[in-house]
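2024-03-11 09:14:02 DEBUG pipeline.ingest accepted 1 chain
2024-03-11 09:14:02 DEBUG pipeline.ingest length=165
2024-03-11 09:14:03 DEBUG pipeline.predict start
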Amino acid sequence: MIIRKAFYWWLFPSAVVLPAWLLVGWAAFSQGSGWSFLGLLVLCPILFVAMLVVGGIVMARRSVREQRAVSWWDVALFAVWHLSIIGFGFFLPGATGWFAVLGILLFAAIFWVSLWELLTETRARVQLTFEAYQRAAQPREVPDAPGESVDGGEYIVIEEQRERD
């Protein structure tokens, strides 16, 4: 549970930290040209938005908000995705392209798995709500015997006295 909670708290800070890591990694490890830095300046905001989108989808699930922990599927996919982003930031010759492709594929997997989990959980909650409405809409039992009354035979008589002028 600690790992799931850690990923819960890491979701939104990672949207800032990991794109910043790419910029720091380029400065420290890249021997590329200014054009590769320009490409990185375009990539970082896209990565930021992508991480916010999947983080928002994950946080939209009620179970995640109540438990303050993501699912194990989320942990596995986010761990591998974040590791691929970190690996990309080292700008290893020949491996950078592979890390980029892996990162894009993992983003697609996280997006669709998170969306599937959200829709599955929401559908279950909506079904429970409709079943509760169905139970509430069922007619109540009315006494069948003609002598029985709903109020148990009790009644209140209010007598009014009129004053004459």
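2024-03-11 09:14:41 DEBUG pipeline.report Residues 18 and 85 are 7 Å apart (CA to CA).
2024-03-11 09:14:41 DEBUG pipeline.predict end
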